[in-house]
Request: fold
Amino acid sequence: MPLPSSLAGPKADDAARYAAGLSLIFFGGLVLSIDIPLIRLSESGFATVVFVRGALSFLVAVLLWALLGRGGRAPLIAGRLGLAVTALYALATLTFLVAVFMTKAANLVFILALNPMFAAMLSWAIAGERPSRATLLAIPATLLGVFLIVGAGLEGSAWLGDLAALATAFLIALALTLARRSRQDMRYASAIAAIVPALLALPFVIAGGGLQSEAIGWLVLNGGIVMPLALICLAAGPMFVPSPVVSMGYLVETVLAPVWMWMIFFERPSALSLMGGGLIVVTLLVHALVELRDRRAPQRAS
Reply:
C-alpha cells in the first residue's frame, strides 16, 4: 500500500492530502462496519472470534509489510514512538474487551463516541494542532447522533465497565494523536497490536477444545481481509488529516453496522437509530466539505 507520490512529499497540495485522508478513513470505517455482520454469520464463540481476528490481522499486516514495505516505504514499527503507539492500540483492545464483558453494549458504543472529543483535546495539547471550528461543531453533533442510535438502550451498569470503555476511547485518541505528531507512517500499528488479544484468547480456545465456529469461513474473511484492511487504513489516517477527523471516521461503523444487520438479518433499527445515523452522515459530509473549501481558499487567493 505505497502512498501516491503526489501526496507523499512535503510540498504536496494540502487540499489534495486532506481529500486523500478523508477517502482513506471513510473507506476504513466502511470496511470496519462489516465486522459485526461477519461475526454473526460465522456463529463463533467469543474466544474463537478474538483469537482468529487478532491472529489473522497480525499475520496479514506482517505479510503486507514484507511484500510492500521494502525500500524504506513503511516500517512495521516506526521506532520507539511507533512502539508506543502500537502498545496503546494493544492496551485499548484489552480495555475494550473488559468493557464488552462489564458494561451494556449501548453504554459502550456511546462512550466510545467520545473518541473525537478526546482526540481534539490531545491534538491541541500534544501536537499543537488546534481543531478547526468545523471540527469543534461536528463533535457534539456526531455525539448527539450516537445518543439517538443507542440512547434507548443506555442504562446503569458496572462503573468499571464504563470506565474501561472511557479508557478505550482515550487510548485510541492518544495513539492517533501521537501518530499525527510524529508525521511518520504507522499504518501497521493497529493491526500489529491485534496479536495481544489473540494471545490472551488462545488459552481459552485450547481449554474449550479448539475453535468453536459453525461457519468459520466468514471469520477467516473477517480476520484475513476486513479487519487488517480497515485497521491499516484508519491507522494511516493521521498522516493526512488531524486525529479528531480520523476519530470521526470510526463513527462510520456506528452508522452502517445496523444497516447491514437490517439487510442481512432483518433486524430493523428504530426510527431514532435511523435519525441518529442520518445526523452523523450529514455532519461528517458537511464537515468534510467545509474543511476542503477552507483548504482550497488560500490556493485560489494566490
Summary: Residues 1-12 have pLDDT under 50 and may be disordered. The longest helix spans residues 271-301. The chain has 15 helices and no strands. The CA atoms of residues 87 and 193 lie 7 Å apart.
